[in-house]
From TrEMBL:
TM region positions: none
Pathway in which this enzyme or protein is active: Cofactor metabolism; retinol metabolism
Protein name in the entry: NADP-retinol dehydrogenase
Taxonomic path: Eukaryota, Metazoa, Chordata, Craniata, Vertebrata
Stored InterPro entries: NAD(P)-bd_dom_sf (IPR036291), SDR_fam (IPR002347)
Keywords: Lipid metabolism, NADP, Oxidoreductase
Protein family membership: Belongs to the short-chain dehydrogenases/reductases (SDR) family.
Entry GO MF terms: all-trans-retinol dehydrogenase (NADP+) activity
Length: 318
């Protein structure tokens, strides 16, 4: 009897999902960037643009007329993504450059060449990231999540900030996550050497993204360069490749997740929306202001993280 009831319940659930599939997909898709702003003559840099929401962001901004530079660790995959974008939009101005955010030497070499060859930078989208990977360290000895998701982008932004200021009005978009709500900055063990949990390490790095955006916005007041963080939504992408459980979950519940194109909407919105021209230091999701956890609103924590990041990277910001 129990088996029959369970089977009937599963059948009813399946039927409901089929019937309401269009409504489920519409709800799961979330907000859409409605701005028709053009970016002719503008230069955009996107990290991790060879796949997922980074690639979809690159396509959208290229269609708007921007010159899009795709900074990728895997150049071959980056070129494949660029070719795909050109196939979708023949006039796309996209180019691929090598950047490994897990190696500060690669970041410095990238920035040095970029500054030699590119005269303007109007939009920087810090999009690349790793999620729930096994305990590993970057070339410089940083735990991989905090090293790539935060410190790599922190250094890259510091090296390009002068160009962004000279190109103003300019915008910086930092891709964070709802996961920042569950993160804490463990200053006593920032690199998880005492204990390691891949999920918590990811959450810490996403909180660091929010804090970085808020502190950078404070420091950029009066420069006409804005910076905002975004939560793209729960996106069905290869970001979960390091977690078998997450991969299975995302496959089973794909209908309830955003596609990469849907996940890219908030990044695009923060990059182009006319109404955000002077908005800085905020957090967005589904193309609208979003809640920030208390630990993400702490000015003291933001400044302390800033100082710790500078010390780890051996740099000073003006």
């Amino acid at each position: 009897m129990f088996v029959l009831i369970a089977a009937a319940g599963l059948g009813l659930l399946t039927l409901l999902v089929i019937v309401f599939a269009p409504n489920i997909r519409k709800y799961a898709a979330g907000g859409v960037c409605k701005s028709s702003a053009r970016l002719d003559g503008k230069t955009v840099l996107i990290t991790g643009a060879n796949t997922g929401i980074g690639k979809e962001t690159a396509l959208d901004l290229a269609v708007r007329g921007a010159r899009v530079i795709m900074a990728c660790r895997d150049v071959e995959k980056g070129e494949e993504a660029a070719a795909s974008i050109r196939a979708s939009y023949s006039q796309a101005q996209v180019e691929v450059r090598e950047l490994d955010l897990a190696d500060t030497c690669s970041i410095r070499a990238f920035a040095q060449q970029f500054l030699r060859e590119v005269n303007h930078l109007h939009i920087l989208i810090n999009n690349a990231g790793v999620m729930m990977c096994p305990y590993t360290k970057t070339i410089d000895g940083f735990e991989m999540h905090i090293g790539v998701n935060h410190l790599g982008h922190f250094l890259l932004t510091s090296l390009l900030i002068g160009l962004l200021k000279r190109s103003a009005p300019a915008r910086i978009v930092v891709v964070s996550s709802l996961a920042h709500n569950f993160g804490w900055i463990r200053f006593h063990d920032l690199h998880s050497q005492g204990s390691y949990n891949s999920g918590l390490a990811y959450c810490q790095s996403k909180l660091a993204n929010v804090l970085f955006a808020r502190e950078l916005a404070r420091r950029l007041k009066g420069t006409n360069v804005t910076v905002n963080s975004v939560h793209p939504g729960t996106v069905n992408s290869d970001l979960t490749r390091h977690s078998t459980l997450m991969t299975i979950f995302f496959t089973v519940f794909a209908m309830f997740l955003k596609t990469p194109r849907e996940g890219a909407q908030t990044s695009i919105y923060c990059a182009v929306a006319e109404e955000l021209h002077s908005i800085s230091g905020k957090h967005f999701s589904d193309c609208a202001p979003a809640f920030v956890a208390p630990q993400g609103r702490s000015e003291e924590t933001a400044r302390r993280l800033w100082d710790a990041s500078c010390e780890l990277l051996g740099i000073e910001w003006d």
